[in-house]
Amino acid sequence: MISIVIPTYNRADILKECLEHLARQTCAREEFEVIVVNDGGSDSTAQVVSEFEKQHLMTLRYFEKENEGQGIARNFGVQQAKGEIVAFIGDDILVDETFAAEHLKMHAAHPEEQAGVLGFIEWDPRLPKTPLYEFLTNGSIILGRYGGHQFAYEKLEGATEATYDFFYTSNISLKTSLLKKFPFDTSFLKYGWEDIALGYQLVKEAGFRLFYTKQAFAYHYHPMDEESLKKRMYAIGKAAVLFDQKYPELHKIPTGKKLLAFQILGSAPVVGFFKLLANFLGWYHWYYFAISKKYFLEGVSGKAFSG
């Protein structure tokens, strides 16, 4: 049995769509359950879940708790799980009808406790195909090495395993027993890298292997704009400081020549130059790359958000 854990916070409308997709699963009803953890939200989430339960024959369990962040909400969901496997998705993830079956299939092929499964995600077709969305999900778009601040699945083309950097909690599953031994680090209170931190800890301390399958497919409905990118990179910068304190061997905070390059790239003249190139020549990817470094460094330094 697989327990699908969904932390949510004031996004009742898209959560309803998320649940509707889960209700279409091809595997038997007794093979999966859905656990929704309302992380202190105040919208109509409880009503949406209640109405959904009346209309669909699916094991759906709903919990409310105070707002403490996604990592803590996921830990709470794991403690409630009845399945031997836990899958994490977001409330804005719309899974394919074979999602649960594919995760179960992969775990049957890799029954060892330290084996996890990473599924595949694409932007929802309703979202516009803009340079920003491409930049966020292509980790090779700048000089073949940079970009992909949301996902970077193109780097896994032809691969059957992924590194800890791909510990994407939008579509991933692990053995429940392993997650109870290694919960998400609760010191990561806000957005950013609590998932990557757990992935690295699992590799380092438990010999974790993350198997990859494109067959466990889902769409991501998350509207993004330039302001969203700025806030995201600022939050990642703040989280990177904590990450670096815990795992300094990974050098997540740039130093030396790399820091200088980031500072130059994120400087006002360079950002302005790339904005002109974006407006007149369509060089949006470089502009997004420049502002991503600007706001990442602001987050690292602890400056007030300037967006």
Question: What are the secondary-structure elements, in order, as H or E?
Answer: EHEHEHEEHEHEEHHEHHHH
What CATH architecture of the largest domain would you give? Alpha-Beta Complex
- Kindly state the number of beta strands: 9
Number of domains: 2
CATH topology of the largest domain: Spore Coat Polysaccharide Biosynthesis Protein SpsA, Chain A
Helical/strand content category: alpha/beta
Task: Write down the overall mean pLDDT.
Answer: 94
Percentage of helical residues?
40-55%
Terminal residue distance = 45 Å
How many helices does DSSP assign? 11
How would you characterize the largest beta sheet?
Answer: 9 strands, mixed
User: What do we call the CATH homologous superfamily of the largest domain?
Assistant: Spore Coat Polysaccharide Biosynthesis Protein SpsA, Chain A
Gross geometry: globular
Structure description:
- The chain has helices spanning 12-22, 45-55, 70-80, 99-109, 131-136, 176-181, 194-206, 226-246, 256-265, 268-281, 284-301, and strands at residues 2-8, 32-39, 60-65, 85-89, 93-95, 115-123, 161-162, 171-175, 209-220.
- Strands 1, 2, 3, 4, 5, 6, 7, 8 and 9 form a 9-stranded mixed beta sheet that branches.
- The mean pLDDT is 94.
- The protein is built from 11 helices and 9 strands.
- It has 307 residues and is an alpha/beta fold.
- It folds into 2 domains: 2-220, Spore Coat Polysaccharide Biosynthesis Protein SpsA, Chain A (Alpha-Beta Complex); 227-301, no CATH class.
- β2 (32-39), α2 and β3 (60-65) form a beta-alpha-beta unit.
